[in-house]
């Protein structure tokens, strides 16, 4: 009665290989999710920078409207500027006025208050961006000095 007892404790090669295959599949799914999250975070950073640049342009035009001068107002609203976000993506900010600023006639007559509709647009140079990234339209009250 010489029976050799077989020791069945521990994992065999087959179990270890199956465990490694399952771990590989789970890790590949996790890596894909992390890459997608990083891309979304980068795009959100670009959108945030664009929104901030558009808001700054609107604030600049509102500050210029206090001067009560068409040239100052248009000088703040119309130029095209470029800013970059944290990744170095260029964002082009441009503004337009829906109606031209009415300048005083030779006799100095004009409406002392005008409401100007300002549209500010930000476009991104990133290839994955859907342009325009941000567009904002607002009304600006301009009170001209007598």
From TrEMBL:
Would I find Membrane among this entry's keywords? Answer: yes
The membrane-spanning stretches of this chain are 16-38
Which UniProt keywords are given for this protein, alphabetically ordered?
Membrane, Transmembrane, Transmembrane helix
Protein name per UniProt: Prepilin-type N-terminal cleavage/methylation domain-containing protein
Q: Which organism is it from?
A: Demequina zhanjiangensis
């Amino acid at each position: 009665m010489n029976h050799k007892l077989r020791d069945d404790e521990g994992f065999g090669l087959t179990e270890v290989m199956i465990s490694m295959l399952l771990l590989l599949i789970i890790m590949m799914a996790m890596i894909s999710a992390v890459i997608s999250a990083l891309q979304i975070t980068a795009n959100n950073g670009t959108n945030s920078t664009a929104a901030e640049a558009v808001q700054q342009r609107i604030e600049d035009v509102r500050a210029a409207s206090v001067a009560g001068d068409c040239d100052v107002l248009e000088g703040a609203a119309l130029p095209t500027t470029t800013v970059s976000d944290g990744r170095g993506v260029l964002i082009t900010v441009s503004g337009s006025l829906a109606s031209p600023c009415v300048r005083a006639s030779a006799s100095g007559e004009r409406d002392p208050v005008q409401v100007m509709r300002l549209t500010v647009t930000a476009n991104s140079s990133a290839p994955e961006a859907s342009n325009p990234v941000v567009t904002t339209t607002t009304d600006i009250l301009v009170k001209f000095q007598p």
